[in-house]
Amino acid sequence: MNDPGAESTPASGEVSGNDFHGPTAFQVGDHNNQHIHHHVTHAAPTAADPLDTTADEFARVVGAQWQEEAGLRRLLEPAPLPVRWRVSERKVAGRVVGATGEGAGRARFGPLPGLGPATRGRLRDGGGLSELHAVYGGLASGRLLLVGAPAAGKTAAAVLLLLDALAHRAAQAAPADRARVPVPVLLSLDGWNPGEDTATDWAADRLSHEYTLFHGKGGRARARQLLEQGRVSLFLDGLDEVTGRLRAAMVSALETAPFRLVLVSRAKEAVLTARKARLSGALAVEIQPVRPADAAGYLLNRLPSTPSPAWQELTGRLLTGTGPLAAALTGPLAIALLRDVYGDDDPVGELLDTDRFPTPAAVENHLLDHAVVAAYTRRPGHPRPRYSAETAERALRYVAARLAQEGTRDLRWWHIPGWTGRRPRMIAVWFVSSVVCGPPGVIMAWSLFPSIPSAVAGALAAIAGGYGVALQFLARSVPQPLSSAGWRDIFTRETVRSGIRQWLFVGTGLCLVLPLVLDPGPPVWLLYLVTLPIGFSELLVTGRGHKILSGTPFLSAGSGRNYDKVREVFARPQVVDTRSVGPVDVWRHHIGLRLFLGLLTGFALALYIGPIVAWGQYPLLGAMFALTAALWAGATSVLAGNLAVATALTGVQLHFEEGTPVRLVRFLEDARRRNLLRATGPVYQFRHARLQERLAARNVPE
Question: What DSSP string runs through 248-264?
Fold first, then answer.
């Protein structure tokens, strides 16, 4: 990667520092009460600024996140494609001088350490990635609009620019200089309503959800401070994926944002947005088509020294720059797909048949139609794919069609339970709850009142209880917000201390009071034992695990909305395991920790009831009470209250109805690692909007 601090301007017609790695076409597409900030050039923070450590740690986490993601997107492979840009001539921004601030006196943002100001002279000839970074870091307005045609590689260029910006920040030896370089973070615009949240509020909320460093009320406050001080820069993708009226509102709301911005959009939508709202002071640069010589060189670099005749003919035709194939290969998407779909000895020459492929769109559609098969075809030196190409394509077609129906590009696994009929899952949960949890209750009823009516009443109670659990489970078939994304969301220092204090307070209080009213009173160890669940429930209720207790008898008090303010106080993060939160992280948290905590809730209720009954009556009855309470509380917490369980059951149902893999989330992660999907925070997206559209269009009954 080139030196991001280079300030030299290339001569006309030359491009330097323009490595465009791998299939860079795969764009992330999606996805007023305003606080007015009068923002000027940021002075260097003092060495004692407590946010320095937070910013440095955030830079490390973002760097690790996007290094991994860029590798999965194949942006860091050898033999890169060049990326070139020029100042856009489209009517998407104001005058260039408004962005460079030349002659305006005071700049809104000063150049970053090691970079000079971006001037009209430096912008005249465009450039590559290092020049783009120099523009990003030297633009007086701090507003950069990155536009281009569909599949031009805008998002990939933004990712590589982000990595260059992080490298430039890390290269600053002086802490004061490093503190003046903002930490870049890439977010999708999906889900922002500018009429309800300012840009700063929305960004702080997104950061608090996607990075453990900013979890909790205190973490969100730190994120907001970094944003307000301009110590975070936002790379915002997916402007073209929101509705026109909302796009204009977003652009208007970004006017007063106190941080640097890089806004990514398709050129057509950017022009339409500019007619209603124009980002003041923005500089619009446009990604240029890939040159035929660059495309041919990129393809030849991955082939043997003596390519097959078909490849030689194709690259030779490509160099002439004529025909549908040459027109299709001006975008990185088609070039990358061509590399993925056709091997060294495959009949790539068929793409030159103008009868089969009369237009560039026909070439691109053919490549898109074979992308999934190519990704799931076993190649020498690579492990055998877990899924057949037929199964993978069937599943991805279904997923693409569902997202198309919802009008979104974001695939949230916790919304999958709403994709199919709820009745089969409800019946299954009803049956399992009644069969597994009912017998101990029936046996207990028989032992207390040994008669047929008593046993029948116990059975009917089990059936009714199972139905109640199934009704609670139905709520998981409606799109739900994430209740938590990591174990540190639930077990903060304050919630643990609160649980211990509550346990000791109640246990000690009973030790002091009960001997005054009971003679003899229960033993001390029993009082502390039976009050332990009180401390456990206090821990969950005050933290982000409160929904685990929802509906659980004796333990769910306080798990409603009245405790929201209390939870905000206690949900302070422990900055130990700082990382970005991806889809699999959230899934593992719910299917692992939250499932375990649900079972532990059942045990807690058993511990609360069983010893008391055993001491007051006899041990066997106490054991039966404890077992019955544990099973029903576990069913309520695990089956009815866990998004991952609801998603897993939906995966089984979809397997029989649609032929998708049983373990659907594992399949989605596998598709991500094969570069068919990508991760943006805790959600998946297709590698490119065109791939999603093509798969959705082909989702027809066979």
Answer: HHHHHHHTT-SS-EEEE
158-211: pLDDT as tens digits: 999 999 999 999 999 899 999 999 999 999 888 788 888 899 999 998 898 888
| Confidence class for position 518, pLDDT limits 50, 70, 90 | low
CA distances from 238 to 243, 247, 263 (A): 11, 10, 9
| Alpha helices, DSSP H, located in 617-675 | 619-634, 643-658, 664-673
Both tokens of residue 299?
């393809």
Which of 149-153, 240-244, 310-314 ranks highest by mean pLDDT? 310-314
- Give the tokens for residue 351: 């793409």
- For residue 528, name the pLDDT band (cuts at 50, 70, 90): confident
pLDDT for 420: 87
Give the whole-angstrom CA distance, residue 303 versus residue 315.
11
CATH topology of domain 49-73+93-287: Rossmann fold (3.40.50)
Minimal CA–CA distance to 234: which of 279, 267, 288? 279
Give the dihedral sign, CA 70/71/72/77. positive
State how far the Cα of 1 lies from the Cα of 21, in Å rounded to an integer.
Answer: 10
Question: Would the pLDDT of 295 be above 50?
Answer: yes
Checking 650-657 for CB contacts under 8 A at 24+ apart, the result is 650/416, 650/417, 650/419, 650/420, 650/425, 651/416, 653/420, 653/421, 653/424, 653/425, 654/398, 654/416, 654/419, 654/420, 657/420
**CA–CA distance from 260 to each of 143, 309, 352 (Å)?**
6, 50, 46
**Edge-first strand listing for the sheet containing 143-148:** 85-87, 283-287, 143-148, 261-266, 232-237, 183-188
Mean pLDDT of all residues in 32-60: 61
Distances from the Cα of 366 to the Cα of 74, 131, 378, 406, 694, angstroms: 21, 35, 20, 26, 10
User: Is residue 621 helix, strand or coil?
Assistant: helix
Residue 276 to residue 589: CA distance in whole angstroms: 43
HEC-encoded secondary structure of 202-250: HHHHHHHHHEHHHCHHHHHHHHHHHHHCCCEEEEEECHHHCCHHHHHHH
d(CA 499, CA 613): 24
Global confidence as pTM? 0.72
Phi, psi of 141 (to 5 degrees): -80, -20
- Taking CA atoms, 45 is separated from 171, 176, 501, in Å, by 18, 6, 40
Would you say 651 and 667 are in contact if contact means Cβ atoms under 8 Å apart? Answer: no
- Domains of the chain by residue range: 49-73+93-287, 292-363, 483-642
CA angle 453, 455, 458 (to 5 degrees): 110
Non-local CB neighbours of 560 within 8 Å, separated by 6+ positions: none
Distance of alpha carbon 14 from the chain centroid: 38
Q: How far apart are alpha carbons 96 and 87 in whole angstroms?
A: 9
SS3 annotation, 565-578? HHHHHHCCCCCCCC
